[in-house]
Amino acid sequence: MKKAGVFDPKRLFGVTTLDVVRAETFVQDITGEKDPSKTVIPVIGGHSGETIVPLFSQAKPAVNIPADKLGTLVKRVQFGGDEVVQAKGGAGSATLSMAYAGFRFTESVIKAIKGQKNIIEPSFVYLPGVSGGDAIAEETGVDFFSVPIELGLSGVEKAQNVLSSLSSEEKQLLEACKAGLKGSIAKGVEFVAKSPETK
């Protein structure tokens, strides 16, 4: 996109909503809440394994997750896709969950395009290209990162910095996330640089 001169970081989204859906669903298994719209849990970082950092400490409404269940819950969010593949005996993936996550993100984009305000969805974005992103890039040491973003008519209106409110457990998860993301981003940049140009 950069080579073609059409790169617009405000309109480039990595859809990480599936991780959010998993975090919210697994927490509702603990709380007993049945309405998916009644639980909001931000998930930051990336979209694979340890790069996924669910922020249960910032859940709305607040949730009390027993300490003996927290580690297992985090792993389920991070590796939920593997759980589904194993349950299907390797014959498929979480297609319905992905479909719902895609619908949810798309619905938010449409609401924002129609002028609705305060539409927030976590998304993997190019931080230096969006309002509020520079501080997050400086703090994480990566240019691409998933954070809650405010959507608007032109795409990303603002990246929300939620890093100052992490719990001690979440800070540890963030360190593993950053290490994983740095390697993945470097591989992605190298891959694109070596790819032949298409016309």
Helix content: 40-55%
Give the low-pLDDT segments. Answer: none
Number of helices: 6
Could you tell me the number of beta strands? Answer: 6
How do the strands of the widest beta sheet line up side by side? 1-4-5-6
Q: What general form does the structure show?
A: globular
Radius of gyration equals: 17 Å
Strand and helix order: EHEEHHHEHEEH
The computed structural class is: alpha+beta
Largest sheet: 4 strands, antiparallel
Gap between N and C termini:
12 Å
Q: Descriptors for this entry?
A:
single chain, 199 residues, alpha+beta, 4-stranded antiparallel β-sheet, two-stranded antiparallel ribbon, 6 helices, 45% helix, 15% strand, globular
